[in-house]
Amino acid sequence: MMKSNQTLAILFWHRKSRVNKNGYAPIICRITIDGLEDEFWTAKKVHIDEWDIEDKRAVKGKDFKTVDSALDTIRVNLDAYFLVLRTQY
Questions:
Q1: For a pLDDT cut of 70, what percent of the chain falls above it?
Q2: What SS3 string covers 4-72?
Q3: How far apart, in whole angstroms, are the C-alpha atoms of residue 88 and residue 36?
Q4: Which pLDDT tens digit goes with each residue over 24-52?
Q5: What mean pLDDT, rounded, does the chain reach?
Q6: Do 46 and 61 meet the contact criterion of CB atoms below 8 Å apart?
Q7: Residue 48 near residue 14 (C-beta atoms within 8 A)
Q8: Torsion angle, CA of 45/48/52/55, rounded to 10 degrees?
Q9: What is the mean pLDDT of residues 61-78?
Q10: Rounded to whole angstroms, how far apart are CA atoms 71 and 69?
Q11: What's 89's DSSP letter?
Q12: Rounded Cα–Cα distance for residues 32 and 4 (Å)
């Protein structure tokens, strides 16, 4: 059951341990609600040299706008689902 004062944290990161032969690593999304974590694969990949570790975004490359847009969409959807669940419960 959700409480109205729960907090949501969303973190994107690339899994360097899964870099393919072309230098691309999958982007993972970690969701944390009051200290409980879960992760899922976003189905997006980024070249390890094109990922900004501090900003948690793709910063260059031919597809960086598409990748960042997809990550923004995921973040907005997660925020919306969290808000709905928080208001219902």
A1: 96
A2: CCCCEEEEEEECHHHCCCCCEEEEEEEEEECCEEEEEEEEEEEEHHHEECCCCEECCCCCHHHHHHHHH
A3: 20
A4: 999 999 999 989 999 999 999 999 999 99
A5: 91
A6: yes
A7: yes
A8: 40
A9: 94
A10: 5
A11: -
A12: 15
Q: What is the pTM of this model?
A: 0.85
Token pair, residue 3, equals: 């409480």
Q: Does any domain span residue 2?
A: no
Reading the block at residue 13, the tokens are 């990161």
Average pLDDT over residues 83-87: 88
How many Å separate Cα 70 from the centre of its chain? 9
Three-state secondary-structure class, residue 2: coil
Retrieve residue 24's tokens.
């691309």
Choose between 72 and 1: higher pLDDT: 72
Q: How many domains does the chain have?
A: 1
